[in-house]
Amino acid sequence: MLQLSDKEDAAAADEYSDITLRLLDLTDFDDFMEWFADDNVNKFTSTDTFTTSKEGAMRYIVDVVIPHPWFRAICLNGKPIGSIAVTPFDESDRFMSEIEYELSSKYWGKGIATKAVKMVVAAVFMEWPQLERLQAVVDIDNLGSQRVLEKVGFTKEGVLRKCYLLNGKARDMIMYSLLSTDPQLYNLAPDIRKREKSSCDKKKSHPKRIILRGGYARLEPKELK
């Protein structure tokens, strides 16, 4: 029999269980501003390229979000509360991609980011047969994001010392990865074994990598063709 505290915990879990992913556009601007201008989020996100003003947010949606090859809003009960994206590397490194995510700080610690990352991992490894390595680069002090990746099954590879400029200061970053051959991936994407191996040999073009806030070594949006 559930005790009162157990019932409260179950109710809280149900409250944050309806997590979905969808495309984000200009009609989501007000919701987008909740995490784009969130000081807690921006603590680990570079704002050198895009200011967190309304004008900067509008430019970010138009220049980065809409043309991006795989960018989704993280929605709770249909309302966007964050974003998650997978950016493919250039053609010569098309077997690799990088995942990044942001979540309004009021929703931290509720398992939302972990669920969203699991959903994305299951999707992209199926949608992109050529994908062999999905990586993430996280600030060394961003313990919450590190826990998310580790709970999903990413492997911590090591520390990249002074490799990323965050608001004018060189920062140490931790590299995580998940490979298409990692056994833990099969729990997230059971159909991964069904991918046609021959499809890895097919040529597939992607846009050049572009800047996401908090991204790592990406090209400016103006370089997109």
Characterise the protein shown here.
This protein has 225 residues and is an alpha+beta fold. Helix content is 29%, strand content 26%. It has seven helices and seven strands. The protein has helices at 4-15, 29-36, 39-42, 54-65, 112-127, 143-152, 185-188; strands at residues 19-22, 71-76, 79-88, 96-103, 133-139, 155-166, 169-179. Strands 1-2-3-4-5-7-6 form a seven-stranded mixed β-sheet, sandwiched between helices. The termini are far apart. The model is unreliable at 5-12, 196-207 and 215-225 (pLDDT under 50).
Number of strands: 7
Large-scale geometry: globular
Individual helix count: 7
Measured by DSSP, the beta-strand proportion falls in 25-35%
Structural class: alpha+beta
Give the termini separation: 61 Å
Strand order of the largest sheet: 1-2-3-4-5-7-6
Pfam families: Acetyltransf_3
GO molecular function: acyltransferase activity, transferring groups other than amino-acyl groups
Organism: Anisodus tanguticus
Protein name: N-acetyltransferase domain-containing protein
SSE inventory with pairings:
Elements lengths: L3 H12 L3 E4 L6 H8 L2 H4 L11 H12 L5 E6 L2 E10 L7 E8 L8 H16 L5 E7 L3 H10 L2 E12 L2 E11 L5 H4 L37
Summarize the structure.
The protein has 7 helices and 7 strands, in the order αβαααβββαβαββα.
